[in-house]
Amino acid sequence: MIPGKYRSVSGRAANNVEFKLNKETPSFSGRLLQHDLERNYSSRQGDHITLASSSMPSFPILQRSSEEKILYSDRLTLERQKLTVCPIIDGEEHLRLLNFQHNFITRIQNISNLQRLIFLDLYDNQIEEISGLSTLRSLRVLLLGKNRIKKISNLENLKSLDVLDLHGNQITKIENVGHLCDLRVLNLARNLLSHVDNLSGLDSLTELNLRHNQITFVRDVDNLPCLQRLFLSFNNISTFESVCCLADSSSLSDITFDGNPIAQESWYKHTILQNMTQLRQLDMKRVTEEERRMASVAAKKEEEKKRESHKQSLLKEKKRLTINNVARKWDLQQHRISSIAPNQDRKVSDCPQDPSQLRGSTVSAFPEETGSLDSGLTSALQGLSVTDTHLVEVDGDTLSLYGSGALESLDRNWSVQTAGMVTTVSFTFIEFDEIVQVLPKLKIKFPNSLHLKFKETNLVMLQQFNALAQLRRVDQLTVDPQGNPVVNFTLWKYYVLFRLSHFSMQKINGTEVTQNDMIMAERLFGILAHVASSELPQYRLISILGDARKKQFRYLLETKGKKPGLVNEENSDSKRLVGENTNRATLNYTTRDFYNERLEEIKEKKKFCKMYMEDLVKEATEINMKNEALQKLWPQMFIELVRDAVIEIRNKNSYMKLCLQQITDQK
Amino acid sequence: MLSPERLALPDYEYLAQRHVLTYMEDAVCQLLENKEDISQYGVARFFTEYFNSVCQGTHILFREFSFIQATPHNRASFLRAFWKCFRTVGKNGDLLTMREYHCLLQLLCPDFPLELTQKAARIVLMDDAMDCLMSFSDFLFAFQIQFYYSEFLESVAAIYQDLLAGKNPNTVIVPTSSSGQHRQRPPLGEASMLEGVEASQFSQCLENLCDRHKYSCPPPALVKEVLSNVQRLTFYGFLVALSKHHGINQALGALPDKGDLMHDPAMDEELERLLAQVPGLVNSATANPEAGCLPSRTPPRVGSPWRPLHHARKVDAESDGSTEETDESET
Question: Where are the domains of chain B?
Answer without folding.
Answer: 7-124
